[in-house]
Design a protein that fits this description.
By secondary structure, this protein is of the alpha+beta class. Helix content is 50%, strand content 19%. α11 packs antiparallel against α12. It is elongated and about 145 Å long.
């Protein structure tokens, strides 16, 4: 028993000695790790937990930093300028293209936005977006007086977009700036060409149509072939004349500030005049036009000339596109506190979903399979949209083929 006890005691001593040496080894290792991680010596007993926590935190921070570098590199490659600002419009971040767009040597993080962009239109737009908590888009032109002497930004056009940021990412707003000067100048050249060409073509075409009418008056003794030829010439001459007049109308509407003659008028009377003007197109057909307006004054401030065109084009479009019996065209109006809602709807064949995004474009003709039988310039709905927008309103189109097609126009009401 004595020998066995001595042997067991010896083995226990050897184990304790080995454990102590191992513990001392790992303690030194943990102290080295703690030193590298910046932990205090008194936290040595929590080294394993500290080491794991700090290691994971550092790894996460490195991943976030890497993601940020990648994200910023991508933002530096786009053509638009991007800025993040706080609630006080101080710059939090700006990508590299912004300096090129605004011709700045440097964009300073932490400085007020107005000091770096130097255009109150931009800072006002961002402030509006933050205040009203909505996405805002606007096209602006930087004038020489806005950008300062010596700058070559004067006369350039920019699309400015701004939207508020959520509170969990620090609040403020993001701002995107895109230079659209070339497209704006191209668009202006196109407008000038259309307006000038239409003006130049109208006079000679009027003379040509006049001579055709004169020849028709003297064609009683002419051959049937000559008479038929003059009739065809008259028909297509009038069609070209209408295209020219429509192009001139669009040109005037694109410069709405100088073309609109706004004054109060009765919308019900305007719609009724358009319906009466188009009544001959319904003769002999199972079709009718219904007017649904509130009793009393249905006043709207605008240019009566263009509203005559709006109602005429929409009603005429419904009549031409729907040749089957049972057509009902309904023109209605609703007056609310701050807006007027006008609708023109019909129960005809409708417009396919793939055509809806394009119906307001110039010369667009849907339903290609029967468009050759339906005569028109393809400019009517384009004129309608531009006329509504020139009055500060919006127009929407919804269609359920075979059930109902509705044009909805929303117009702001001016205070009495």
């Amino acid at each position: 028993m004595t020998s066995l006890s001595l042997f067991l005691a010896l083995m226990l001593g050897i184990c304790l000695f080995a454990w102590a040496r191992r513990e001392k080894y790992w303690t030194k290792r943990w102290e080295g790790v703690a030193k590298n991680l910046g932990l205090r010596a008194r936290d040595a007993d929590l080294l394993p937990m500290h080491a794991t926590t700090v290691f994971l935190a550092r790894q996460q921070a490195e991943q976030q930093a890497e993601q940020r570098r990648v994200f910023e590199s991508l933002l530096d490659e786009i053509s638009q300028g991007l800025v993040l600002v706080d609630d006080h419009l101080r710059i939090r971040y700006a990508n590299a293209p912004l300096k090129k767009l605004l011709h700045r040597k440097e964009i300073h993080v932490g400085r007020p936005l107005i000091e770096d962009v130097r255009d109150h239109q931009i800072s006002d737009l961002v402030q509006e977006s933050i205040t009203e908590k909505r996405h805002t888009t606007r096209r602006i032109q930087m004038l020489p007086s806005d950008v300062g002497a010596g700058s070559n930004l004067g006369g350039r056009y920019f699309i400015i977009e701004a939207a508020p940021l959520a509170a969990d990412v620090g609040g403020g707003a993001w701002l995107m700036i895109q230079d659209v000067t070339e497209s704006a100048m191209t668009e202006q050249i196109r407008r000038d060409f259309v307006a000038n060409a239409s003006h130049e073509l109208r006079t000679p075409l009027t003379l040509i149509n006049g001579y055709i009418e004169m020849l028709q008056d003297d064609s009683a003794k002419s051959s049937p072939t000559m008479k038929r030829s003059l009739d065809v010439m008259e028909k297509h001459g009038k069609r070209i004349a209408r295209i020219i007049e429509d192009m001139l109308a669009i040109s005037r509407l694109e410069d709405a500030s100088s073309s609109l003659n706004k004054e109060p008028f009765d919308v019900h009377d305007c719609a009724e005049d358009a319906a009466d003007h188009l009544a001959p197109m319904l003769e002999g057909r199972d079709a009718r036009i219904e007017l649904d307006f509130p009793k009393g004054d249905c006043l709207l401030t605008g240019d009566r000339f263009y509203w005559d065109q709006i109602f005429t084009n929409l009603i005429e479009n419904s009549i031409k596109e729907n040749t089957k019996p049972g057509l009902v065209i309904r023109v209605s109006g609703e007056w609310r506190k701050d807006e007027c809602i006008l609708k023109v709807s019909d129960n005809g064949i409708g417009i396919p979903a793939h055509d809806l995004p394009f119906v307001f474009k110039r010369f667009y003709r849907g339903n290609k399979h029967h468009s050759s039988q339906i005569k028109g310039t393809g400019l009517g709905l384009s004129i309608v949209r531009r006329a509504v927008e020139a009055h500060g309103g919006t127009i929407e189109l919804t269609s359920s083929p075979g059930i109902e097609t509705t044009f909805t126009m929303r117009l702001p009401l001016q205070p009495a």
